[in-house]
Amino acid sequence: MNIQIFGTSKCFDTKKAERWFSERHISVQKIDLKQKGISKSELESVFAALTHRLGSKDAAIEALINGKAKNYSSIAYLEDEDKLEKLLEDQSLLCTPIVRNGRTDATVGFCPEVWKTWN
Fold first, then answer.
1. DSSP structure string for 15-84
2. Are 15 and 3 in contact (CB under 8 A)?
């Protein structure tokens, strides 16, 4: 498994995800969104994996957006095709943690029931 966790050091769900993998002795690569951020190709890969998992692009984009973010109004009324670009510009709008298993699978939020199925 090649697990990456995108999140912030202050996010409780990110800490829980890191702990969940650590308790199972699964090594992870941690990426702090405030320090390094997520690249365009990484975000597109996560979006594609979420689209496959959730069944639609609309569901995938909504899963990625943090509706509780202070500046949520800056993305709420954009067209769907512009929302990914806005998420790249302002990564504080991303819902965390984003957990990626290679390029084929990803989750947003604390999802141990999905992670258990990853081999």
1. HHHHHHHHHTT--EEEEETTTT---HHHHHHHHHHHHHHHSSHHHHHHHHB-TTSTTTHHHHTS-HHHHH
2. no
pTM over 0.70: yes
Structural domain harbouring 39: 3-115
Give me the CATH number covering residue 56.
3.40.30.10
> What's the domain count of the chain?
1
Tens digits of per-residue pLDDT, 53-77? 999 999 999 999 999 999 999 998 9
Strand partners, 7: 32
pLDDT in tens, 75-108: 989 998 899 999 999 999 999 999 999 888 999 9
